[in-house]
Amino acid sequence: METRCLVDGKWVGEAHSPVTNPATGEVIANVPLLGETEAKGALDAAAEAFADWKRQPVKLRSGVLRAWFDFIVEHRDELAALLTAEQGKPIAEARGEIDYAASYIEYYAEEAKRILGEILPPPREGTRAMVLRQPIGVVALITPWNFPAAMITRKVAPALASGCTVVLKPAPETPLTALALAALAQRAGVPDGVLNVITGDARAIGEAFVTHPDVRLIGFTGSTPVGKYLMGRAAESMKRVALELGGNAPFIVFEDADLDAAVAGAMASKFRNMGQTCVCANRIYVHQSVADDFTARLAKAVEALKIGHGGDEGVTQGPLINAAALEKVQSHIADALAHGAELVTGGHRHALGGTFFEPTVLKGASAKMRVAREETFGPLAPVFSFADEAEVLAAANASETGLAAYVFTTDMARTYRMLENLEYGMVGINTGILSSEMAPFGGVKQSGNAREGSHHGITEFTELKYGLIGGL
Ligand code: ADP
């Protein structure tokens, strides 16, 4: 396990900030608390490394990424165990996340070879015109704790594939997975200074990121307020920002849906990672004619979940990340009950104590409740009922955010109407799981401004340059 930071190919920093296992409260490691000066040093190293890295043949960059992918696959189980120890998610989900994280590296090792320019029609006789697609430069990345591996690789892999160099600040709750990935990247041949990983004071490091003259892009996944703050600060020097922020996903079940499939989809979408993903169903809208049936089946599935330490095989729900996360779930439940919702199952802290919480289903949810407007980010499934398609579409779109939405229906015309009219960056029809390295992940409205994954994921990390050659 690596507990120091990687700057310019060297492992640096003193053990300072504790990393705890959320299932036990036990301190499992201490990582450095670096500040603005060290962050500037890492950015300087990335700027220096950029000159060489951008010039490397694409086959070299592709090969390095491929070797990194191979090392991650080889160490999958150890990485998953580390991830569960610092984040809490069930070990099966952690293994799934490592596979998913690795898939971005594999994809961009391949996509590196397809970052293409264009030849344009010459505007005048004796000229030739072209478009070059070049790496944007040094990129500064900030990632959250809910996917300690995947949020990193889906930014770092396209950055390195494009020829950019990186300084990454992982979440303070989950730095160990990030440092382990960095150690494997180094082993895979990522040159000194091309990937730097620093842990420490978020504000101070953020200050270096937004003010350093060589940073050309700030990539961030996290909360909407911090995203807005970074976007504002980045504007001072016109740095590009790529933001993946919060959601408030509607999950809509029509009267013609296959209810078993809808319940399975709701379970996957809502309770994965204990409800702590930005694409988790937050508002479950069910047609009034099937609402009771759906809710009863959902409650039965929820009661079959196994809560415990993520490291124990068979566990499907671990602890929440911290006390603040637990309090938010409790406050959303209290607010919903005060506004007329009814508890169907769960609703309380779990007997295991700590930040364990019972997966919860509420019925009779309404637009007056906080859960209609705010992302719970926890294991709470509130069921709203609706009378017709126009009503539910309006309710689903009445949100400041627009990341993921889910619809269950067997009607083909309705499928297209919903797909086209939901104001969301991603829409899943008859599925509760959307993400793939081959698809563009991202949101509209206040959910962000970028896409990660697929060939579109290269866009943020590259600039277009128009070249016109005259006198020919
Ligand atoms: P969450 O509530 O899920 O932790 P945050 O947006 O607070 O969401 O955190 C996401 C990431 O942003 C973390 O790596 C965190 O350390 C970082 N972060 C938080 N505040 C700032 C800031 N002012 N400047 C830079 N990074 C920040």
TrEMBL record:
Pfam family, one: Aldedh
Gene3D superfamilies linked to this entry: Aldehyde Dehydrogenase, Chain A, domain 1, Aldehyde Dehydrogenase, Chain A, domain 2
Cell division is among the record's keywords: no
Keywords, in A-Z order: Oxidoreductase
PANTHER family cross-referenced by the UniProt entry: SUCCINATE-SEMIALDEHYDE DEHYDROGENASE, MITOCHONDRIAL
Entry's family note: Belongs to the aldehyde dehydrogenase family.
Name by which UniProt lists this protein: NAD-dependent succinate-semialdehyde dehydrogenase
The species this protein was found in: Pelagibacterium flavum
